[in-house]
Amino acid sequence: MTMQAMIDEWYPVGLFSQLDNAGRKTALMGEPIEVARDADGNAKVTGGDGRVLPVRVRYGHVWSSLGQPQKELFPIPEADQPGRRFVDVGVVRVRCSPLRAVENFLDIAHFPFVHTDILGAEPHTEVQNYKVEIREEEDEVWATQVKFYQPQAAKSASGGITTEYMYRVPAPTCSVLYKTCPPRPSEWDVITLFVQPLAEDLCDVWPWMALFDDETAMTDLIHFQQTIFLQDRSILENQIPRLLPLDPGMEIPTRADLTSIAYRRWLKRHNYTYGAQLVAQ
User: Vanillate O-demethylase oxygenase-like C-terminal catalytic domain location, by residue (predicted)?
Assistant: First the structure.
């Protein structure tokens, strides 16, 4: 089974703001790597055999690849929008497939049960109809017209609101979420999940946000998002099988799983199989 398709992708390997000359040792798809700043203060990533790996610094993170990326890192236009606050949430290590971490982020139905009284609440458990597509020109998975009642949609929200979401998967281990921005209804808050595959069943998750919120303290914004993801981690680490099944017969989807179905189909189409289980065992 070739893994070249995923080897040639860009992956987050650290927060640029936390880098120093001493660097940090980490891993990418099973290979030890080191992320540091060079003498000029630029990010540098070195492979286990000493080879210098490709580097980009974007969205507060250092990105690298074990292969030769055939395209630039995906754009997030809101990252260049004046007036937004950019939140480096930090990192959460999760014992699960990097693909499982992304798919969980795409799952709306779990809000009332996992994020009770924050992102969802009973009896508001029904997932309304929404639209899912694989956009051929961008080669991305999109879910739009997603609406869900939330007791506290964001740190800036006061009281429950029906929140609208758009989900976007621009790379196999990254997802971008656009959601209702309570202080500015004409804009979207942007919450991303950048996943670093350490191994097929272990990953570091780097959430990042671009928000219109001038009121909330930065530590509160970070704590709010970390609280949400730590609730997810307990679910992710208990999923069986640990790898993401790509055989349609291995798990029974429901109407709420349209985004997941499209994501799995897209992964198979591109042979993005690192962290996936292809056949039932």
Answer: 94-269
CA dihedral 179, 174, 94, 240 (to 10 degrees): 90
Pairing of the two strands 244-245 and 276-277: parallel
Q: Are the C-beta atoms of 10 and 65 separated by less than 8 Å?
A: yes
Judge whether residue 56 has pLDDT over 90. Answer: yes
pLDDT value of residue 227: 79
Name the CATH architecture for the domain at 1-73.
Answer: Single Sheet (2.20)
Q: What percent of the chain has pLDDT over 70?
A: 83
Ramachandran quadrant class, 161 (left: phi over 0; alpha: psi -120 to 50; beta: rest): beta
Which two three-digit tokens encode residue 12?
A: 């987050």
Spatial contact of 3 and 274, defined as CB atoms under 8 Å apart: yes
Cβ neighbours, 10 Å, residue 281: 9
Region(s) of the chain under CATH 3.90.380.10? 77-277
Dihedral pair phi/psi, residue 137, rounded to 5°: -65, -45
What is the C-alpha separation between 253 and 43, in angstroms, rounded?
42
Handedness of CA 91, 95, 101, 104 (dihedral sign): negative
User: Does the structural domain 77-277 have CATH classification 3.40.190.170?
Assistant: no
Chain segment 200-225, per-residue pLDDT in tens: 999 999 999 999 988 888 888 888 77
* Cβ contact 154:182 at 8 Å: yes
Check residue 260 and report its DSSP letter.
Answer: H
Q: Is the pTM of this model over 0.90?
A: no
- Quote the CA–CA distance of 194 and 172 in Å, as a whole number: 10
pLDDT of residue 39: 92
CATH 2.20.25.680 domain span(s) along the chain: 1-73
pLDDT at 158: 59
